[in-house]
Amino acid sequence: MALDRREFLRVLPAACDGRPHAQAGDAIRVELGAGARLRIELGPTRERRIALLALPATVITILADGPVPAALASAFLRDFENAYRRGGG
User: Fold this and answer.
1) Which end of the chain, N or C, is less surrounded by CB atoms within 10 Å?
2) Domain-by-domain residue ranges, the chain?
């Protein structure tokens, strides 16, 4: 993602849209309901260069912690993408 860790964590509550979540080190556990959970792992932040423009880039991995119903996963991913969407039309 084209942001640093601090910015990712600032937007995270909106991305979770009221779902309980907790951070432990480089991992964030998100409760989806019905016993389903996801884990978001934060990788290193590096600098991505496009000509003279330098942007932060952080590797984000989203993993299921056990079985996750498709409807719950889809709803979370929709909210996650909407929260982190940037303008640029």
Assistant:
1) C
2) 5-84
